[in-house]
Specification:
single chain, globular, alpha/beta, 14 strands, 30% helix, eight-stranded parallel barrel
Length: 361
């Protein structure tokens, strides 16, 4: 088995085992609709076995920063349908990632001007992009009420319905990297003493309610989850990730999901520990600091039990990453200065490999 081996399961039929990981790129209109360049960007990368889009907010109250796209309005849905059509026209498969910012956000970064809210009033401390083009630190969030939690669950389900209506092949729920689902799981961002906080079972409650609402809306076979157990990014703390995530993955396994997307980190080997607990498809991503930029590193993830491997930054500079792996061609550097620009520059203008031997064109 190799990265280029086709993959088939109950829920997936892919020409290779290379997945494009979700990556925020901030190429949306002020209202959160993806620009025309977004369709080109994903179309160029349709050679991946599966594309997972950048995170989209399911409701304006979950917008993490300016220019992050949404999937909450008719206009969003129409714009994303054009992206999906472009990928499908190239024979690709594409899943929409739903990403609620929770405590991550700022009134001046959101189209509705709302104050961010998470499980508890614990600030993030990071810096984010505002609508006026400047940056600011995150403000202190509010603690979500029970009514707001219940509303967020329904917002995920409504957005998932829009994803299917737009033609997406599925939905990935972002439960990783410090966003809302992760905030309910982590010890330091969930200080609640009601049914959504305290015990492991209570901290799992919101994530599972979201999963169940989305599977009820679009089917388990089109619903996936991404987790980053023990990830300390953005000051997240999980004192015993093994206990928490073993229980969570056991519950997810009962639901017959499309796949489980796991990120390892130096403190917790998520793939090794959780792969045996999940009977379905597992995608491995080795994390921001250990991205598999070469085929051998990704092949090791397959040998360690993953069915598929997601590449992030390698797909930015090389839209034809699959062909480059096939031909053992080099991967060039990303233009960091335009990584989060507003135009095609540094986004959909990277060159592809020449059809004949001879390097880049």
């Amino acid at each position: 088995m190799s990265l280029l081996t086709p993959y088939r399961s109950r829920t997936l039929d892919l020409p290779n085992r290379i997945v494009m990981a979700p990556m925020t790129r901030l190429r949306s209109e002020p209202d959160g609709s993806p620009t025309a360049d977004v369709a080109d960007y994903y179309r160029q990368r349709a050679g991946a076995g599966l594309i997972i889009t950048e995170g989209m907010w399911p409701h304006s109250s979950g917008q993490s920063e300016a220019r992050v796209p949404g999937l909450a309005t008719d206009r969003h849905e129409r714009a994303w349908a054009r992206v999906v059509d472009a990928v499908h026209a190239e024979g690709g498969r594409i899943v929409a990632q739903l990403m609620h910012g929770g405590r991550k956000g700022h009134p001046a970064a959101r189209i509705d001007g709302s104050v961010p809210a998470g499980p508890s009033a614990v600030p993030d401390g990071d810096v984010l992009h505002l609508l006026d083009g400047s940056k600011a630190t995150w403000p202190r969030p509010a603690a979500m009420s029970i009514a707001e939690i219940e509303a967020a669950v329904e917002q995920y389900a409504a957005s998932a319905r829009r994803a299917v209506a737009a033609g997406f092949d599925g939905v990935e729920l972002h439960g990783a990297n410090s966003y809302l689902v992760h905030q309910f799981l982590a010890d330091n961002t969930n200080l609640r003493d009601d049914r959504y906080g305290g015990s492991v079972a209570n901290r799992m409650r919101f994530p599972l309610e979201v999963v169940d609402a989305v599977t009820d809306a679009i089917g388990a076979e089109r619903t996936a989850v991404r987790l980053s157990p023990g990830n300390p990014q953005f000051s997240m703390i999980e004192r015993d990730p093994a206990e928490l995530y073993r229980g969570l993955v056991d519950e997810l396994n009962r639901r017959g999901l499309m796949y489980l997307h796991l990120t390892d980190n130096d403190d917790y080997p998520a793939l090794a520990d959780l792969r045996p607990r999940f009977d379905g498809t597992v995608i491995a991503n080795v994390g921001e600091n250990r991205v598999p930029t070469s085929a051998p590193a990704a092949e090791r993830a397959l040998a360690d039990g993953a069915d598929l491997v997601s590449f992030g930054r390698a797909f930015i500079a090389k839209p034809d990453l699959v062909e480059r792996i096939r031909r053992a061609l080099p991967l060039s550097a990303i233009r960091e200065d335009v990584l989060y620009g507003r135009t095609a520059e540094g986004y959909s203008d990277y060159p592809c490999a020449a059809v004949s031997a001879g390097g880049d064109r």
